[in-house]
Write a structure and sequence with these properties.
There is one protein chain. By secondary structure, the chain is an all-beta fold. The protein folds into two domains: 322 residues, Glycosyl hydrolase domain, family 43 (Tachylectin-2, Chain A); 119 residues, Jelly Rolls (Sandwich). Strand 10 and strand 11 form a beta hairpin. It contains one helix and 35 strands. The strands form seven sheets. It has a six-stranded antiparallel β-sheet, with no helix packed on it. Strands 25-34-27-28-29-30 form a six-stranded antiparallel β-sheet. The protein has a five-stranded mixed β-sheet with strand order 4-3-2-1-20, with no helix packed on it. Helices cover 1% and strands 47% of the residues.
Amino acid sequence: MAHERYRLGFHIAPKAGWLNDPNGLCQFRGVYHAFFQYNPVWPAIDTKYWRHFTSTDLLHWKDCGTPLVTDIAEDRNGVYSGSACVRKGMASDGGDLMCLYYTGNVVYEDDPEAVMDFVHTGREANEILVTSEDGVRFSEKSVLLRNADYPDVCTLHVRDPKVWEQDGQLWMLLGARDQNDQGMVLLYGSDDGRTWCIKSQVYSQNPFGYMWECPNIVQIDGHDFLAVCPQGLPYEVDRWQNMWQAGYFPLEDSILDTVLVDEGTFVEWDLGYDFYAPQVFVDERGRTILIGWMGTFEDNRTSSPNGMPWIHCLTVPRLLTMGEDGLLRQNPVPELEAGRGGALPLTGGARTAIDGHRADIVLEGIAGAGALVLDDNAVGIVYTGERLEVSFSDEWVAGGRIARRVPLDHLSDLRVLVDTSAIEIYANGGVVVFSTRWFPSADMVTVEVSFESETAVVYPMEDAMAGAYDEDHGL
């Protein structure tokens, strides 16, 4: 029960088991849907399913169980990542139809004498469709693409379909690894969402990682951005510091006309310890929203106390906008502000404590260097005048983590979301973002600031996830 202190109040997490990639994000018939990769028996090794959460306001979420499990030959080793495409007027009642596309993973392990590297031999990647007319009941599975349907240049690492409608047609992006171990994206087109034809292959001008996972398309203000998760980028001092990276390429033309991207334009979404596999969707108001995975696959980079029955969470939903520089900004959706309590002023040098270890901290009009410190220096957010640094002083709280930093020529504002065991930091209107897990021992979060700023307040945050897991859905 001691680990219940780390239960999250406004982030999606499993009641038990393992969470990773967000999948199938959409708003469907007025309700927001978030699925994610799920292993119910973690820390035991098992296959992956899709767990399902819903919300009407992007703040309060409900656990709806595990609708997609491994129950056909083409996904017997995992219901892997994919996306949702809401098709207007295509349901039998004349309403919208939810179409879920995912990769069914198959690994050949029947012949112990066979030599398989599971890159060029020994696996299947099958693209599969499931539909729903109500977001509750789901159709039988239809297999759309198999190994033989991918270009010969590809290895067997092809996965993570992103499907959307544009110009009266359906389009699908697939992440891939080619025979020369270079990351790439495949673009397919379809008239009906079931029969797909290859249209183009998208590469970087120079090799940029050996595999591009979780491709997404962001289309804002007439500009296209190709988002991918390149695996195999070399570590550098101020970037590419996680096991695998996640970011986007600003495109000069439409994604439909792109075959080469400039790897030098790649922008990381998040510089924190815990961020990967983000997925983007457009809601019924036309807003572009991103949710990412706050976690990592690598054990020695995962911060989690021993004995916890669950691991990892998703970020809060982030509203994407484009800045004057042509790059994207990320900020928590405005709906999160409905979870705030009354504002408490932060006075320089004073220590402010918040019950429940959930807080929304806002500093605006920052002038010069300074620091924001949480839990008596357990976490420090420091601006030196040249760089912004997020550091941990308590090794147990941080799981062995030390510091992350980014060069920054000015700091105008900070917003810090603290949710028991998760922190998200947004700087300069969402130009710079850090996400990280931590596991504090205090029952209250304390905040101290030394910045000079026009505004410095902290809002207590409600436990919006209370009751989210009340129903027992099994698995």
